[in-house]
Amino acid sequence: MSAQLNKGLMMLNAKIGRNAKIGLPVVLVTALAHTSVDAGEGAFSNYFPGAYGSLLPGMAPEPGSVFANVNLLYRGQADRAVKNGQIQASMKSDAFYSLFQGMHVWDAPMLGGRFAVGGYIPVGYASYSASVGGLATAQDEFALGDIGIIPASFFWSSGKVHTNLYALIIAPTGQYDPNGSVNIGRNYWSADLVAALTWFDPERGTEFSVVPGVMFNSENEDTNYRTGTEFHMDFMFNQFVSEELSVGLHGYAYKQLTGDSGAGALLGDFKGEAFGIGPAISWIPKSAGGNVAFSASWIHDVHSKNRLSGDYATLSFSIQF
Fold first, then answer.
1. What is the domain extent for residue 50?
2. Which of 18, 88, 232, 242 has the fewest CB atoms lying closer than 10 Å?
């Protein structure tokens, strides 16, 4: 593997993992299957499938600063869900989130590994329609989303095995109106504890990674709804077919460890679960000297229970300074 490609890979994986409920109008979008959904307020949560990495998420990036723009795409519908304290039927939603992320990586070792901190600021657009008590309602919104902070991220490497442990805190800073049909923010705190494990053979250009995490959620005080504790795991297989281009197969598994609760959980103590898989592609242009990278993925749900079922897409760009 060339030094340019190796540098590009280390830079690309510095993208900050992010979970979000909505996404971007770019590519790879299809309508979600019609399904009955009970778990998670508004039929979703702060976890977005496929947003926790594209290439080498466990490998330490080069020291310095990294900027990334990660776009998340979501389009779906469901028979029913609890949203804003009401049972809503025939829900349909189109949404786009664009995350502007930054990370700084220190050269000096800490706890035997490399240390980094980071965060992101999201902006989003969403349109929403539903039936509430037999009356149709529709709305769209463009606004600031919930800001994420990574206060500590540690990287370790041993041969072909690379590990990254970090915490992600999501603050309820986004636009939220308990009486509105569309809310860019979710109006509750989430804390996600994440471990990214990567096996990478630089001679063959082959990678396999898993990124498990456990997300804890506070209660939405305006609706008295608390989404249960969530286990999620993104996984990815990537194969470089040239020094600039890789193709892969990405997917995720999701399961609620505890049910939704609170006075606002009108559909009861339900637990969601889902599994999805789909193709991915990454490009590190040689003309940029390995400092720029692009990645795209599409994941299709093959199983879901008490959760939206459909398709998720990501499109990201990152640059090393």
1. 3-320
2. 242
